[in-house]
Amino acid sequence: MSDAEWLADVAAHGMVRPSFVPPLPIRALGELTRYRKTQITVRGQEIQRLEKLLQDAGIKLSSVASRVWSKSARAMVEALIEGDATPEALAELAKGPMRAKIPALVEALENRWDSHHSVVARRILAHIDFLDESIASLGDEISERLRPVEAAVTLLCTIPGVSTLTAEVIVAETGADMTRFPTAAQLAAWAGVAPANHESAGKRRPAGTRQGGRWLRNALIEAAKAAARTKDTYLAAKYRQVARRRGPNKATVAVAHAIIVVAWHLLSTGQTYQDLGGDYFEKRRDPERQAQHLVGKLAELGYQATFEPAA
């Protein structure tokens, strides 16, 4: 099927024709989103390299600022490159809320900045600028190619933790065509976020997660971490519930699994995401067992309590 035929089919039916091999436009999208991800990763590495350079010069900016890379930080680095390295002058370059931290900044910006720091910092800034331009250009190209399936991206963005970038990766890796995956469980297994089992001598043991597409899996893991930080949502409640029993890493994978299952249903039905609420698991708990648990907690604190059902 040619690109023109595929685009015409999407416009007419709102979906990609079922196929085990994604059509060329979807494969092209996958290449673009993957390359953009590598550029974003390199950009993050350059920012880390800049932080290490600042620390080498005795500058402890990260102890005051929540983020090493910001407009304020950039202005300070540029001033350092130009030779204006006094802590007071650097602190005055703070912008917005960071200006309230000027006294702490003066202390953190005490430095031993040298000419070789300027050489390296100048190249890091130039590389970050290049990467920003590259990422923005790739984003524009991806958005243009996603126009035929823009509705799918919009649907996915209704899931807590799923950004536009994550939604674009899900569409690029799956084609937004759920007919390729008869069940949500099959899509989760293909994405590498479904539980695996190791069977030997008739016994089954957990074996982590199944092997799957690393690009989609990585995007889902990032989305899961973002969802875990949301307030009063089902996914955040699920993360807390699993993390209490099995730790944060397994909880993150569990939330990633939930996200791709939700994505399968949204793309299959066209319905928007309806959150079950942050109290979903509390509502499901047996009221009597919950009451007994609370009475036990009071007993541990040295109180004696009894309970009886309300009228």
How would you describe this structure to a colleague?
- It is a single chain.
- The protein has 311 residues and is mainly α.
- The protein folds into 3 domains: 3-148, Helix Hairpins (Orthogonal Bundle); 149-269, no CATH class; 285-311, no CATH class.
- The chain is built from 14 helices and 2 strands.
- The protein has helices at residues 3-13, 24-56, 71-82, 87-91, 102-108, 115-145, 150-156, 164-174, 184-191, 214-228, 234-246, 248-269, 280-284, 287-300; strands spanning 195-200, 203-209.
- A two-stranded antiparallel sheet has the order 1-2.
- A hairpin with a 2-residue loop joins β1 and β2 (203-209).
- The radius of gyration is 25 Å and the shape is flat.
Task: Provide the descriptors you would attach to this structure in a database record.
two-stranded antiparallel ribbon, 2 strands, mainly alpha, 14 helices, 311 residues, Helix Hairpins, flat, 4% strand
Mean pLDDT: 85
Largest sheet properties: 2 strands, antiparallel
CATH class (first level) name of the largest domain: Mainly Alpha
The overall strand count is 2
- How many DSSP helices? 14
Do you know the CATH topology of the largest domain?
A: Helix Hairpins
Question: What is the share of helical residues?
Answer: 55-70%
Weakly predicted, low-confidence segments: 6-20, 197-204
**Which term fits the overall shape?**
flat
Radius of gyration: 25 Å
Our count of domains comes out at: 3
Q: Output the structural class.
A: mainly alpha
